[in-house]
Design a protein that fits this description.
By secondary structure, the protein is mostly helical. The protein folds into two domains: 58 residues, no CATH class; 262 residues, Orthogonal Bundle (MetI-like fold). Helices cover 76% and strands 1% of the residues. Helix 12 runs antiparallel to helix 13. The protein is globular. It starts with a helix and ends with a helix.
């Protein structure tokens, strides 16, 4: 019998061959129960969310996705268009800024920094992930908002004002650009930590061989480190994107909670998660509650798409890596 067939046998088969061990059976049952628990919890959460959102889904249908109004006509018309727009803009904007910064941090700590710097800097960067969202939101209100309004915003508007995203000057500290920067701070420790571990796992003989052939340090990074770790990098970026999409508290504190679609990042807006966190407890009608839960359904779909995309990207990149 092959090794794969031997591993595939369960406790019942081992008992038939006289090699049954109680510990094996307990491990099998506990592991199987843990796996099934995750599936059951996901199914229960999905069922509850769909049940609560059903009145809004039945009333608005898919038109909910393309309706921008929220609470118009005596609190009877709701739509998610502006919140979907805000979620996409803030999440991908944060990922766009965080990606090069995270990769640079990971490369510095894994390839360039002396050992004593790594021991000091790496834990400090990872500590950013442990800061509560509400604390980051308060920092955004007290420090980041005034900085964007008084210094960064006018500078970007004066230099890049010909771009639609910087076409207006920020008038208040709460805007979509502040939300993007807050989400960037949240993404960086996650992506950089994962990428640092990936870069550190690249076999040293591959890098030494490239250096021996006359490659520069940058050529080693570009030709050896990045190709070896690209599947993991893609997964880390998708994980960071999921973190940005689902963030609610910090974004609620700095984005302005405005139902609007603006090309300028210095205008106020809102996201799916922020709208749910900001209004669910104070919802006035059953239809408004159902509409808020409908937003949660959209978030679940986003999460599902992100996970499927991550698995697809990792498999494709890993497959190409094996072929080469």
């Amino acid at each position: 019998m092959s090794v794969a067939q031997e591993r595939a046998t369960g406790p019942a088969a081992l008992q038939r061959r006289g090699r049954f061990r109680p510990g094996d059976a307990i491990l099998y049952v506990v592991a199987c129960a843990a796996a099934l628990t995750g599936v059951v919890l996901l199914a229960l959460i999905t069922r509850e969310v769909l049940t609560e959102a059903w009145p809004a889904m039945q009333k608005f249908g898919l038109g909910f996705l393309t309706t921008q109004a929220w609470g118009d006509h005596h609190n009877t018309l709701f739509g998610a268009k502006s919140f979907i727009y805000g979620t996409v803009v803030t999440s991908f904007g944060a990922l766009l800024i965080a990606t090069p910064i995270s990769l640079a941090i990971a490369l510095f700590l894994s390839e360039l920094a002396p050992r004593w710097i790594r021991r000091v800097v790496a834990p400090l960067i990872e500590l950013l992930a442990a800061i509560p969202s509400v604390v980051l939101g308060l920092w955004g209100i007290l420090v980041l908002g005034p900085f964007v309004t008084g210094t960064l915003g006018p500078g970007l508007h004066g230099t890049l004002g010909w771009l639609p995203i910087f076409s207006t000057e920020p008038t208040v500290g709460s805007n979509m650009f502040a939300a993007i920067l807050i989400l960037t701070v949240m993404i960086i420790p996650i992506v950089s930590s994962i990428c640092r571990e990936l870069f550190a796992s690249v076999p040293q003989e591959l890098k030494d061989g490239a250096l021996a052939l006359g490659a520069t340090r940058w050529e080693v990074v570009r030709g050896v480190v990045f190709p070896y770790a690209r599947a993991g990098i893609a997964a880390a970026l998708i994980l960071g994107l999921g973190r940005a999409v689902g963030e609610a508290i910090a974004v609620t504190q700095v984005i302005g909670s405005r139902v609007a679609i603006n090309s300028s990042l210095f205008e106020q807006g809102d996201t799916l998660a922020s709208r749910i966190a900001g209004q669910y407890q104070g919802a006035d009608t059953a239809l408004q509650i159902a509409s808020l839960v409908y937003l949660a359904v959209i978030l679940l779909v986003f999460s599902l798409i992100a996970n499927l995309a991550a698995q697809l990207i990792v498999r494709r990149v890993a497959g190409r890596h094996q072929i080469r």
